[in-house]
Amino acid sequence: MPPVAESSLEVREDFPIFARRFDGRPLIYLDSAATSQKPEVVISALTDHLRNHNANVHRGVYALAQEADAAFDLAREKIAAFTGAQRQGTIFTKNVTEAINLVAYSWGRANIGSGDAVLITEMEHHANIVPWQILCRERGATLRYLKVDERGELSLEALESELARGDVRLVAFTHVSNVLGTINPVAEMTARVRAAGAVSLVDGAQAVPHMPVDVDALGADFYGWTGHKALGPTGIGVLHARPEILDGMEPFLTGGDMISSVDFQSATWNELPSKFEAGTPMIAEAVGLAAAVDYLCALDMTRVRVHERSLTAYMLERLAEVPGLRVVGPPEAEGRGGLASFTIEGMHPHDVAELADRGGVCIRAGHHCAQPLMRCLGVGATARASVGVYNDAADIDALVAALHAGREVFGLGGS
Amino acid sequence: MDDLYRDYILEHYKRPQNFGELDPRDLEALEHNPLCGDELGVHIRVKDGRIDELRFHGHGCAISQAAASIASEELKGMELQDVGRLDADWMIELLGIPVSATRRKCALLNLKVVRGAVTGDDSWPTGSA
Fold first, then answer.
1. Which domain holds residue A394?
2. Taking the CB of the first residue and of the last residue of chain A, which one, N or C, has fewer CB atoms within 10 A?
3. CA–CA distance, A232 with A228 (Å, rounded to integer)
């Protein structure tokens, strides 16, 4: 029997921003898919590091530098453990975008050639499209797309037929769609990719903050996620990869810290993960993200997922009451992450978001950096409401009330 | 009454003036709002150095559609050399509603596309406000 969902995790007080008032009203934040709010423990870990332990890492001999080293190393241990990854296979990047660019540049340039194909899907974020467009153009390779069906899902059979063509070297896809909410069957997909002798890359930006993720069990060769959507600071992302595959790759960004030795004409590379972290790394941000994963571990990611799934089910049910509202993506909360994108007949999504704000509700509108998907859906834009650990059913009620009120402003009738 | 979504704004949104296409046409341009993916194009027929006919096409929010509709009435009959001198202040004043920084591009997209068609300058219109 599935665990009973809690209507609220009762953690809002842990997040200082919710003490703010906007024209006297509380903050109703339904935009966690864009970025999450930060708990006090993350903010104080960051400031404590900057106040009390700040020094550059690596090679400092004084006590303060050793404290910074220890804090940075511990942060990486915790962040790697959070997703079941190895320390040497856990590289800090600026964000998922940089993680994907790293793979496209370092792995892609060495392994994708003329006549090869890169397979992605129609539901990708621009971050998982544009690097492959550039790589394919540069290498004379082909970029192909797995279709999204009318339920907003991918087909394993379609993946198999694409792989059977024999030219696919890399398959890159999102774990959870930032528009449709679809949770893709990652393990089933990576198993097929591996069996075909290809390499897989998974964009976990919308998954890691919201559900238990074990990158080892998922079997992806590359798995990226970002700190700021997972209650951590901006400026730090994570790329997980098997150390063997990283060992065989040339570096991406080059300079200080990533070298073993530098001669006048050449250099040799540092060991993992430093080989892929040129320059002073994001030290305070890593400490902040480690505090965020500590916080999430204490909450228990299974409990987080159960809570957010139950809220999403409630959101889907309540949104269906709004006349003219159409939700895109899987119809059931079971197969989706904590978000719903929708359109309302007679109102542009930007106006929907603006009018939601009149009701004190923060939602996002636009193409969500997924313009090819928008074209497949036949819309220019959607509005999107997304939940986090701090949301509860009352937030969804406020959204639905604001949408009704917005329709009235636009003079749209009751049905 | 809503400050932004006033009756005349919604009226122009629902029934925009001078929307459609012109064939033949003398000038045209198409622009996107990179923030939201909205698209607005214009077709213009010129007679004696003036805008004789003008039609917008595309899709966008209430602010961008209403702004195009309202501007279209002013633009018809305007001398081409005057179009290049129109700035953001002209558009915002014409629209007559408080436009926040985030919605500014919605309001200015039509002027950007018209100036692009007439003068080739496709930069975002600026102003003092």
1. 12-30+301-409
2. N
3. 5
Sign of CA dihedral A273, A32, A54, A67: negative
Q: Is B63 on the interface with A (CB under 8 A)?
A: yes
Q: Name the amino acid, one letter, at A127.
A: A
Confidence of residue B128 (pLDDT cuts 50, 70, 90): confident
What does the angle CA A258 – CA A263 – CA A267 come to, to the nearest 5 degrees? 35
Nearest CA to A202 among A180, A216, A227, A222? A222
Pick the CATH number of B7-118 from 3.90.1010.10, 3.40.50.300, 3.10.100.10, 3.40.50.720: 3.90.1010.10
Q: How does pLDDT run across A368-415, given as a tens digit for each residue?
A: 999 999 999 999 899 999 999 999 999 999 999 999 999 999 999 765
- Binary contact (A351, B61; C-beta < 8 A): yes
Residues 394-413 of A with CB under 8 A from B: 409-411
Q: Considering A136, A297, A362, A369, which one is annotated as catalytic?
A: A369
Partner-chain residue, chosen from B2, B5, B37, that has the shortest CB–CB distance to A381: B37
- What is the per-residue pLDDT across B99-110, written as a single tens digit (0 to 9) for each? 998 899 999 999
